[in-house]
């Protein structure tokens, strides 16, 4: 009996140790992800500073002489700076596809909309299926009036 | 055309729209905080910070639900189009509300964590292999990042700079974000809530989004099937003078068929500037004028009058049995097409 209890305790220790190891691994991965995110955002800040003070006027005629709206573009530049660099380069080299401006991806939008229409009921169903309702012995009641 | 960028383009309609939007958000938050406290389980009293967290979180969910309903509603019924054109302000407000929810979560649950609050949130639960107890916080964080991305790129500049295909592709991320948000609520708050009212509103909203998108897709498919190369538009008299009829073509593009007296021409419905809806503009001084920023195009060749250089695609038209038909194959931007003479038919 004692041995069995000891065995159980040993198993519990092992599981606990495993959980701790998984948690340490998760923390390390999260820390790495956050560091990568910080590096990405700092690079974006550098691109934003360069593009909004110098590049924007070179590639966007309607932005020349217009400065008040530029601070509003800072978050976008920081978040999508690889796209900003790509478009900046394309416009500097005169590789802008004029006709494509009239063709937003409407077909893709319909397909993604249909995928959403299928996915949403599945997610809702999953949420309801796994829900664990507590015991329903008696509805809770407030025994005394709030002071 | 010389339209300089400004921080925010407001007009009277947008002021009214934004005013109603902010008033609606404030009314929802006040109602949730007042009613929610009273409906809380007496055995599990909810702290004020948690109640505010839930008020902002549920508000963001319902705002995004309305945003995603507007698109298919406008496709199914043109009367919803005015809601569509100011949707970007709606999105920015939604991000602000969602960010407030996230700030409450981090400030309440992770304020005293030994690691930074965001790191604590993402690493406190790593049970990604199970549905029950799934770390739903990560799903909410993903949706918040997407909302931030879309709010940050909502200025007109981004549409022009990135071009419509890239900008639109970027903004299609709202769909996976909404799916993540539904999962965030379904695997999070829905597991805990006892009051069926929230579950009904949440499920009803999410199913409305799903149903409207399915209906809009079916409607588009039906239209595409019924149309060939030549698509019937309407009788000439049905188009008001100096106005247009917008036609959806089998490939999903839209054309605007304008009538100027006894002459009818068709050009793309998307303005070359920022894809404004040309078909909702009118003819001013002989040119089609975009309702968004006043860009102008000649009906017969889709070119802006000199010295401007913008061009939009044109379409061929013909008359058959008194009905205008449009060739679904667009001409290259700036291609001249002789106007259709409809004298005696209007």
Textual characterization of the structure:
The complex is a heterodimer of chains A (147) and B (346). Helices cover 71% and strands 0% of the residues of chain A. The N terminus of chain A is likely disordered. Chain A has a domain of 83 residues. By secondary structure, chain A is mainly alpha-helical. In chain A, helix 1 packs across helix 2. Chain A has 4 helices and no strands. The radius of gyration of chain A is 28 Å and the shape is elongated. Chain B is α+β, with helices and mostly antiparallel strands and 346 residues long. Chain B has 2 domains: 213 residues; 112 residues, Rieske Iron-sulfur Protein (3-layer Sandwich). Chain B is built from 11 helices and 11 strands. In chain B, the strands form 3 sheets. In chain B, strands 2, 3, 4, 8 and 11 form a 5-stranded antiparallel β-sheet that branches. In chain B, strand 9 and strand 10 form a beta hairpin. The longest helix of chain B has 31 residues. Chain B is elongated and about 80 Å long. The two termini of chain B are 34 Å apart. Chains A and B meet through helix 1, helix 2 and helix 4 of A and helix 5, helix 6, helix 7, helix 8 and helix 9 of B.
- What is the count of helical runs of chain A? 4
Q: Total number of β-strand segments of chain B?
A: 11
* Quaternary assembly: heterodimer
Distance N to C terminus of chain B? 34 Å
Helix content of chain B: 40-55%
Structural class based on helices, strands and sheet pairing of chain A: mainly alpha
SS strand fraction of chain B: 5-15%
Give the SSE order of chain B as H and E letters: HHHHHHHHHHHEEEEEEEEEEE
Low-confidence stretches of chain A: 1-7
**Quick one: biggest sheet of chain B?**
5 strands, antiparallel
Mean pLDDT of chain B, to the nearest integer, reads 87
Shape of chain B: elongated
Question: What's the number of extended β-strand segments of chain A?
Answer: 0
How far apart are the first and last residues' alpha carbons of chain A, in Å?
53 Å
Structural class of chain B: alpha+beta
Average pLDDT for all residues of chain A: 79
Which stretches of chain B are poorly predicted, pLDDT < 50 over at least 5 residues? none
Integer-rounded radius of gyration of chain A: 28 Å
Whole-angstrom Rg of chain B: 25 Å
β content of chain A, as a range?
Answer: under 5%
Could you state the order of secondary-structure elements of chain A as H and E? HHHH
């Amino acid at each position: 009996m004692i041995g069995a209890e000891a065995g159980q305790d040993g198993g519990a220790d092992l599981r606990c140790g495993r959980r701790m190891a998984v948690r340490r691994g998760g923390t390390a991965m999260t820390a790495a992800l956050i560091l990568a995110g910080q590096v990405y955002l700092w690079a974006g800040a550098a691109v934003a500073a360069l593009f909004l003070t110098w590049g924007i006027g070179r590639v966007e005629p309607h932005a020349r002489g217009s400065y008040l709206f530029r601070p509003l573009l800072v978050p976008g530049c920081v978040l999508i700076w690889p796209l900003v660099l790509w478009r900046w380069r394309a416009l500097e080299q005169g590789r802008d596809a004029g006709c494509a401006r009239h063709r937003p991806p409407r077909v893709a939008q319909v397909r993604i909309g249909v995928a959403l229409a299928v996915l949403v009921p599945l997610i809702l169903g999953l949420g309801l299926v796994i829900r664990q309702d507590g015991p329903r012995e008696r509805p809770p009641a407030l025994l005394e009036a709030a002071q | 055309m010389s339209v300089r960028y400004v921080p925010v383009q407001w007009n009277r309609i947008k002021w009214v729209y934004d005013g109603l939007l902010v008033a609606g958000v404030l009314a929802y938050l006040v109602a949730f905080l007042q009613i929610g406290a009273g409906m809380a389980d007496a055995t599990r009293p909810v702290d004020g910070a948690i109640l505010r967290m839930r008020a902002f979180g549920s508000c963001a969910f319902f705002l995004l639900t309305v945003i995603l309903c507007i698109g298919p509603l406008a496709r199914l019924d043109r009367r919803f189009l005015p809601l569509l054109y100011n949707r970007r302000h709606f999105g920015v407000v939604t991000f602000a509300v969602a960010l407030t929810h996230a700030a409450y979560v981090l400030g309440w649950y992770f304020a005293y964590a030994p690691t930074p609050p965001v790191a604590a949130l993402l690493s406190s639960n790593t049970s990604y292999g199970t549905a029950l107890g799934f770390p739903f916080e990560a799903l909410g964080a993903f949706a918040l990042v997407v909302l931030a991305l879309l709010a940050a790129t909502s200025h007109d500049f981004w549409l022009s700079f990135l071009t419509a295909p890239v900008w639109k592709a970027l903004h299609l991320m709202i769909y996976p974000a909404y799916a993540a948000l539904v999962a965030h609520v379904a695997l999070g708050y829905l597991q805990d809530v006892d009051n069926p009212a929230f579950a009904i509103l949440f499920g009803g909203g999410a199913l409305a989004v799903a149903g409207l998108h399915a209906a809009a897709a079916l409607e588009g498919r039906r239209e595409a099937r019924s149309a060939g190369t030549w698509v019937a538009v309407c009788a000439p008299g049905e188009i008001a003078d100096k106005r247009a009829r917008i036609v959806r073509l089998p490939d999903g593009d839209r054309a605007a068929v304008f009538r100027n007296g006894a002459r009818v021409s068709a050009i793309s419905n998307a303005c070359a500037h920022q894809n404004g809806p040309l078909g909702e503009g009118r003819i001013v001084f002989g040119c089609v004028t975009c309702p968004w920023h006043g860009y102008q195009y000649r009906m017969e060749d889709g070119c802006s009058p000199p010295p401007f250089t913008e061009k939009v695609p044109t379409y061929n038209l013909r008359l058959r049995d008194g009905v205008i038909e449009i060739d679904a194959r667009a001409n290259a931007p700036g291609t001249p097409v002789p106007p259709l003479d409809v004298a005696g038919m209007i």
